[in-house]
Amino acid sequence: MRTIGLLGAISIGVGGMVGGGIFAVLGEAVSLAHSATTYAFFVAGLVALLTSYSYAKLSVNYQSEGGTVTFIDKAFGHNLLSGSANLMLWLSYLVTISLYAVAFASYGGTFFTNKTPLLHHILISIAIIFPAFINLVSASFVSKSETFIVVIKVVLLAVIIVSGASYVDTDRLSLGNDTSPLSVVVAGMIIFVAYEGFELIANAAEEIKEPSKNLPRAFYGSVLFVILLYILIAIISVGTVPEAELLEAKDYALAIAAKPALGQIGFTIVAVAALLATFSAINATIYGNARLGYIIATEGELPKFLAREKREIPFMGVLVTLGLSLTLANTIDLNAIAIIGSASFLLIFFIVNLSAFKLRKTIEAKTGILLLSITATFLALATLLYHTYASSPQAIIIFVSFIAVSILFELLYGTYIRKNLFNHGHIE
């Protein structure tokens, strides 16, 4: 039964994008792009928009809970490439959930005078457990709660933008000699994680009303809206606060930007917006990842128990996502992993764009746009990896290891376990 309208579909995309990324990585973008931070957000948004074209075309033709998984399988079949990519996508969502939860805890901690490690871990856990509970209720409840939360946080961010507009010093937005085109692109790719999330709409395709009309509108509408929102946020941040102050408080750059117009209450508003943003991003990501795990498991690419469901809710997928996310968020330093998360999604999007190109006749997509999307995601990934290698070689090792784990799991599980659990007729 289709229960999600256009607004609900857009809310899933916006909720997935406007999460912890914008609050956590704004300062890093400023440190690299300086006065050109707005251009960095535009470049990253353009890559997301180009990829959304592939998703829109594929989603209309292949409506499935699997979303990205289904697209890759339809294009390349069940093989090492698709199996590894699908597992890597599933693991990448766990990383983003953990990242958002840590951001939630960081902003939540500002409301307490006695900040302890225990408090931090409690807030991280709450940020994951409560959205997981919402997902166990029903898909329509997820949509309704997502719409409500997205409206509130967008209104709060709009207040910051409107109130700070008159305080913008346009001289701070002038391009200086301290910014090169490469640094702008690098900054855009580092903050690309702030745009990851629009693809979650594909996972809800079967539940969206009038899919042929609403799916493309939801993809393009959510991405364009978030591009505009991020650019305005960047203008307010860079234009109202001296760069030194933004860099001094990288993790709270947006909160600092609210102070010129709203003072301490502005800081509080940003903190509240951050809590809502990260919460809704976790909510939407659990929604998509549980269904992703379900469809991968039904196709034999993950253990069969992940395909268990109750009342059409993949409860085992939600519970496993909950457990692994709690473990990651409470035990691992995610600073470097955040960059690896961005690289992972750029790689996945590159593969999805290749899938759309291979299926271009079936989905009636324009070859020129697809080639541009493929080129953009490839160059974006290459630029990010180049910068990461120069600044943190260890992160490259982590990224390569991330890929290796996905490939090895697919090889070992497919060779020694899957064939004993699924007969040939069950796996299409």
Give a description of the structure.
The chain has one domain: Amino acid/polyamine transporter I, CATH 1.20.1740.10. Helices cover 78% and strands 0% of the residues. The protein contains 17 helices and no strands. Residues 423-428 have low confidence and may be disordered.
Average pLDDT? 83
Largest sheet, in brief, is:
none
* Topology order in helix (H) and strand (E) letters: HHHHHHHHHHHHHHHHH
Task: Calculate Rg over CA atoms.
Answer: 21 Å
According to CATH, the homologous superfamily is Amino acid/polyamine transporter I
Task: Tell me the count of domains.
Answer: 1
Continuous helix count: 17
Instruction: Tell me what portion of residues adopts beta-strand conformation.
Output: under 5%
Give a count of the beta strands, DSSP E runs of length 2 or more: 0
CATH fold naming: Amino acid/polyamine transporter I
C-alpha end-to-end distance: 24 Å
In the predicted model, the low-confidence regions spanning at least 5 consecutive residues are 423-428
Gross CATH architecture:
Up-down Bundle
Which of globular, elongated, flat, extended, rod-shaped describes the shape? globular
Percent helix: over 70%
CATH class: Mainly Alpha
Structural class of the helices, strands and pairings?
mainly alpha
